[in-house]
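FAQ: What does the model actually see?

It sees only this:
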Amino acid sequence: MTSSLNIKNPGAIAAGSVTVLMGLGTVTVFSAGANLTGELNLERFYDFTTLRQLIFFPLSIAVMYLFGMVDYHRLGFTRAGIKRSFTTWLLVLVVLMLIMVLIPGIGVSKNNARRWLSLPLGPLSVSFQPSELAKWITIFFLAASLEYLGEDIRRFFKRFLPICGVVGLVVLLILKEDFGTAAFICLLTFIMLLCGGAKLWHLLSPMPLAIAGLFYAIITHPARMDRIKAFLEPDKMAGSAAYQASQSLIALASGGIWGTGLGHGICKYGHLPEDTTDFIFAIVGEELGFVGVTFLILMFLIFVFAGTLIVVRCKDRLGQLLAGGIVAAVAIQATINLGVATVVLPTKGIGLPFVSAGGTSMLLSAAAVGVLINIAKQSSYELDIQSLNVNSIRPASIPAQA
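And it is asked to produce this:
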């Protein structure tokens, strides 16, 4: 038995690291949401980002363990069938919701971008971001398709192009209002198709069109061009497009080794925009210092390690592709966010998984981790069965030596 099997339950490790990240995020968001002018009105509890996060934290844990009990094969096309698969219906739902977001009067605009739908729940109105759901459903769709098609994915016109067409439709619906998520889905699609057995030249063939589309989306949007210029020439735009990046570095530098103390940071008081979402890492660095950010990064590394172990142990192709896509999505998104907060990458509105404020992101990410937990459970069960089979063929007793 290999040394990797000594870790008996990587699913529990993944769930534990995610729970710690969500707990740390809830506390940090609560601290970052403090202000000097706003009055706390508990009758409008849901309108406060910091208080709202207190609801989503336990709810996300419940969602994670609930999805951990659902057989992940229901997401595939082979056993469940294409028409009866959860993935098919979720994909149709996502496309409809993405279309609804683009309709004026239905889609909700925030920060000059129409990315949300408002779902009335009695006296409350809950905002939902369909592009977040689209990210995970694209992973499920690609995993189910690659497992169902097998080697047929190498057939360019009959198999590869239709798969890319479905993903392309989702990306085009997202691209206008959410460039970052659209580019992120393109990157995930490339990785999953490559790992799923698609030919490299097939993957490279639509790249010129995809690059041209993304380039056009950048040059036709002044704010995106300003972010690129601010990244290349930060000194010239320190008071405008590069302001967030420079304030993020100030917050990280202010924390030192141990930080200023939880709740004692000052950059959140109007100095650092989007401090509860895109730049929450900077608040962690300011208030918890180098120790805090190291611990946060360590939790992500533990999650990636446990997720990779789940992929390696799983003998089912659908499980491998699903687990690999989920781990890759979390790892890449976290890397991009940390790169933006440390000004290694241009500023982009991509939150830190499990940590940044946002109920849609936390709930859906927790659900995806629940799928990962179910894959780990079933893989562990298969390993136990194999172990029993091996033990059953061993001699019942060993003759004593003379």
